[in-house]
Write a structure and sequence with these properties.
The structure is a single chain. With 560 residues, the chain is α+β, with helices and mostly antiparallel strands. It has a domain at 14-168: Glutaredoxin (3-Layer(aba) Sandwich). The chain has 23 helices and nine strands. It has helices at 11-14, 16-25, 38-45, 59-68, 82-89, 95-104, 116-122, 149-168, 195-211, 229-240, 244-257, 286-303, 306-322, 350-353, 358-364, 375-392, 395-412, 435-452, 455-472, 500-514, 520-533, 536-540, 547-555, and strands at 71-77, 105-111, 129-133, 139-144, 271-272, 280-281, 284-285, 333-334, 369-370. A hairpin with a 7-residue loop joins strand 5 and strand 6. It is globular. The two termini are 28 Å apart.
Amino acid sequence: MVARPSSWPSAARLFPSLLLALAACSPQSVAAPSALTSAKREQERAAPGEPVAWAPFAPETFARAKAEGKLVLMDGAAEWCHWCHVMEATTYHDPAVRAAIAKSFIAVKVDVDARPDLAERYGDYGWPATVVFSPDAEELGKYRGYIEPTKFVTILHEIATNSASKTEAGGVAPGCGAGFTTGISRPAPKTPLPEEQLAWIQRNVMLDLDEYWDPVEGSWGRRQKAPLGWDNAWTLREAERGDVNARAKALLTLDKQAALIDPVWGGIYQYSAAGDWSKPHYEKLMTFQAPALENYAAAYRLTGDPRHLARARAMQRYIDRFLTGPEGGFYTTQDADVNAHDRAKPFTDGHTYYALPARERLARGVPRVDTNEYGRENGLAIAAYAALYEATKDPAARATAERAARRILATHRTRSGAIAHTAATNGEEPKQTFLADHAAFGWGLARLYEATRDEEWLTESRAVADAMLRDLTDESGGGLFGATRDPDAVGVFAVRRVPFEDNVMALRHLARIARSSDDPTYRTAIGRILRAISVPEEIRARGRWLGDYLLALEETKGVR
């Protein structure tokens, strides 16, 4: 193994202020408790009380908060999220919590899958994420995960009291937001990063990823296990280049994580709460299904091992049945539990449900599927089916990918050529468009071209890239903004961010366009984005999620 150069700084030397901010926030970061039994969960669902009266997350809500002298309390939740359902059923139905909210807050609930800008901003906190804002939309406090009612009442009382005292003094109450600048636009260096510096960064990021490697259970990280699709993809790529060590890591990981594949319906669960693969959380997200399908298809192409093909088919079978719409677009997620959204119906937790055979599952119902067809998720799925076609030449895989591509182009493309997050309604143009949708969908189209060599998909991918660069380029900072400008945004939302993960996906998209075009625009954009995001604290903040950045560094060689 190559030794790390002594000049590569430690996390503490890189960003001591960030570590101090993390330390200051630790009392406000509330972890989810251990898994509840089904009986306990039923008891909690039966708790009396009406739900909170949720207001829209909109400028008029902040104006109302200012007029009423209240704070804004945001519940950032995902439709599929088990602990979001628990907090809704228990904490937000608790009479003391509702009284505390009514006294000092206006509460808003946000579906984070529907709002990529908020998902990017608060995703590091996990879901549910609770954020308190001043009426001017400045962050006063951020709280991670499930919070039980008694503790939540205490938090609400303290932040309301502190905010009132600070407001009287003409200031703003302190919160966890101070010191967190990851994703904020910054001036880019005036000169491009030389190739030797990028190579140095790549070597050190590879060493960073190695530090997380678990030689016993495979994958990266030891506290919880998850199917880390991009880390797997990077390791498989290195294996294809003849790296024997990478091959061993990739195949061990893919064998071990197969414990999270649903043996009845296929598809892969989101993660295991243990340091091995034995305690699954049963949500099924397209953002995990698609990379897993791609990984197993690549492993089959690398090895010819029928076990990997069978696992790829399990992903395909699940997506085809549960996450594909009648017009060919791909859906977003499936819940872990049955009837988590309907307190009037019998509830079955995922641990009980997914232990049942198919007939008994169906007798209890099917966990809710979020049938939104988002641009990002469709791009990831198109790329995965393209990878399956590359590995198998299965015409059904190609047809599925092409049908989805045509569906999204027909329903999500705006008059200006941008890609909307959701399908247009009655011809209305979206208020904002998002980098996540452009980057992932454009990348999916480019991967479809690579798999089929059909020029139609290269042309469409280039058109998406052009719209992305036109609408989202940060001229001063060098990267791509996460969203187009919102003219009504206030407070922290008036500052657009340059999200690391979505810029990485944009690099992978642009790299494929640049190789097929003489237009220097794409190469220039690649260089600017790399300069903007290749910052040590940004990279270190990713933890074990480094594979996508390594892939971007590799794929942009020769076109930057």
